[in-house]
TrEMBL record:
Stated name of the protein: Alpha/beta hydrolase
Signal peptide interval: none
Keyword presence, Lipoprotein: no
Gene3D superfamilies referenced in this protein's UniProt entry, alphabetically: alpha/beta hydrolase (3.40.50.1820)
Top-level taxon of origin: Bacteria
GO terms assigned for molecular function: hydrolase activity
Entry keywords, A to Z: Hydrolase
Organism placement in taxonomy: Bacteria, Bacillati, Bacillota, Bacilli, Lactobacillales
Record has Ribonucleoprotein as a keyword: no
Amino acid sequence: MLKLLKWGLIPLIILVPFIAVNSLGLSVNAIQYIFSLTPEVTDEKRLKDVQTRINILKDIEYTSDYDNNIADIYYPKTPGKYPVVFWIHGGAYVASSKDSVAEYAANLADSAQVAIISMNYELAPSAPYPSQLLQTSQMARYFIENAQEFPMLDLEKIFVGGDSAGGQIAAQYLLTQTNLVYGKQLGVPKLIDNSQLKGALLFCGPYEINQLKKTDGKSVLAKFLYRTVAWALIGKKDWQNEPQIDEASISAHLTEDFPPSFITDGNKLSFPDHAKTLIDRLEALGIENQSLFFEENKELGHEYQFDFTKPEAQVAFEQVVQFINKQIKN
């Protein structure tokens, strides 16, 4: 992903100062172009092997007020009920789809013996904040209320996870389920009891949206990405002083009921500072958490964990599987 961010923007980088200031549409198109270059499969041989042991239900339409309301379920072929992982994909809120996590979801369903529900959602800027959060709630409601149609789902054991923008959405949805005042403020109903929530899986997310305005020392590319993401998400060009950026920032709204969390990030063109802010707050509240970061002397980019050719991704994957298995037993 890091290489794509570097090379995919070379034809555009000279235009960044102009398009970032004046044109949200062109800025969003540039980001969508970058994400279109990301390979969907990094280890085809491994994936083909995994696919012999899992089932995939594609494009299930869930009830929603928003567009792009479809989801896939990945689950082991062996008959049974499997703990559920609701997964929200990344893409800077403006790009990508559930297909971007298909390889990872298949591998995780097989190795952790879980059912992954991987959702699509309507993208910004056509659906500004908090549309993605509300759509996540509607997706969860659909599967919970229609559980009889999906006998492979053990909805007494639920994880919520996401990557990049999806990591922030996942964490915010978990806030609405564990901080009732916050959930009511946002109009998100409590659907999942604390006893059902087994964990959070949070990869490379911009958890502290209000930190996106702090761009001192950041590269031109990083400033462009931060500005475009926040402008598209909040829906206002001058988003820096809008109250939504504090509302959407995770750590200030955490309570002791937030579930055990696995958190990881790369170290280049990503959000490790956001992750560490979140971890510090989890620690202060006594919330169980496990984190994985890597030394700065080896460049490891945004969404590194999805590239199964990287040894660091293998380490992260194994730790996630172990974390899930541990929390299922608790």
